[in-house]
Amino acid sequence: MIGLYVHVPFCTVRCSYCDFYLLPQGHRALQAAPFLEALGRDIDAASRGFPGARADTLHFGGGTPSRLAPGEIAAVVARARAAFSLGPDAEIGLEANPEDLTTESLSGLRAAGVTRLAIGVQAFDDALLGMLRRPHDAARAAAAVGDATRAGFESVGVDLILGLPGQTPEGALDGVRRAVALGADHLSLYLLEMHARTRLGRAVALGRLALPADDATAVLYEAAADLLEAAGFEHYEISNFARPGRRSRHNVKYWTDADYLGFGPSAHSYHGQRRWSNVADLGRYLQAAGEAASRVEDPQPPAVRAREALLAGLRLLEGIDLERLERRYAIALPTGGAAILEDMRREGLLTLEGTRLVLTRRGRLVSNEVLERLS
User: Fold this and answer.
1) Quick check: helix, strand or coil at residue 264?
2) Tens of pLDDT along 198-214?
3) What is the greatest pairwise CA distance in the chain?
4) 302-374: which CATH number, 3.40.47.10, 1.10.357.10, 1.10.10.920, 1.10.340.30?
5) What is the DSSP code (8-state) at residue 211?
6) Tell me, what's the pLDDT at 331?
7) Within 10 A of 205 (CB to CB), how many other CB atoms are there?
8) How far apart are CA 114 and CA 105, in angstroms?
9) What is the pTM of this model?
């Protein structure tokens, strides 16, 4: 079974840390209808290009998919069901911002078939939300999460960011506790990533804002993980925690080297070790959706694909089976051989149980370093 991804490029504003392809709200009113029409062409063309392909997950990302009306989401879900035999037990996930969620819209999303909601809270702190240019405040975020957990979705997740300028450890942990108390059964705790092109990246580069020390952020991350595990959450991926049975089935496809097809401008696809993306330009996408002219190929040799699969799989709690990976790509991994694995095992960064390679808790704390050494 493959996964399906839809990139919705519309947002209310561009947040100060965001480096994704998107367009501010003004474009949505002008271009939502042609976008949906192009999206339908894209989906139909893919179903012809991969005849017989069946899907069991559909994920709406962005941008902010909740800028689309529930009826518009329902139309895309119906198109995907017809094109890829998306079954009644499929996971249909949607990323949403708190300001878009009302009891009415939540009911509409449930009726549209959405089973899993991921709410981009980022922080339960008004000062931090203002710095991030988020369109909601902490009270609105809390209300949205509470309403969503009562709306009947199979899973409600909350996204939070750790390592923000001016964020205190206790404030960050209070945010994690608040999400749990509101009923979220999935939490994504992302360490802040700085991009030079973003407003926040420029402010840090100019010395206007200071990031917390890496060691302090690592301690915070570990404390948050302890808190969630004590509350019954499984730390199933480096940045993701879920109650039993509430993992993101769609995102697990990315980490297990499974096939997926992406639709919408800038969306990526991976099928049979071939990787490509749609052009990151809404105007060009509207003209050429579903045609070769709208795609950008990413040709890479098997050795590169194998390393990508290794690094992605190590993010999971269960790690990765090296023997299975070697069979798939006919390449021995890691490229540094057994010696590099033994060095990191002695350092307490990973374990090797038979052919399964797993990061330890310490290894997760310095995962970027580990993955760099393995690549």
Assistant:
1) coil
2) 888 898 888 888 888 88
3) 58
4) 1.10.10.920
5) P
6) 83
7) 11
8) 11
9) 0.94
Strand order in the sheet with 350-353: 320-321, 356-359, 350-353
The answer to whether residues 47 and 53 touch, using CB atoms and an 8 Å cutoff, is yes
Region at 183 (left for phi over 0; alpha for psi -120 to 50; beta for the rest): left
Length of the chain: 375
pLDDT (tens digit, 9 = 90+) per residue, 84-95? 999 889 999 999
Measured CA to CA, the distance from residue 61 to residue 208 in angstroms comes to 31
CA–CA distance, 255 with 239 (Å, rounded to integer): 12
Taking the C-alpha atoms of residue 81 and residue 79, their distance in angstroms, rounded to an integer, is 6
Q: State CA 31 to chain mean position distance.
A: 25
* 8-state DSSP, 6: E
Pick the CATH number of 2-254 from 3.20.20.70, 3.40.50.1820, 3.10.420.10, 3.40.640.10: 3.20.20.70
Band of residue 82 on the pLDDT scale cut at 50, 70, 90: very high
Q: How far apart are CA 110 and CA 341, in angstroms?
A: 47
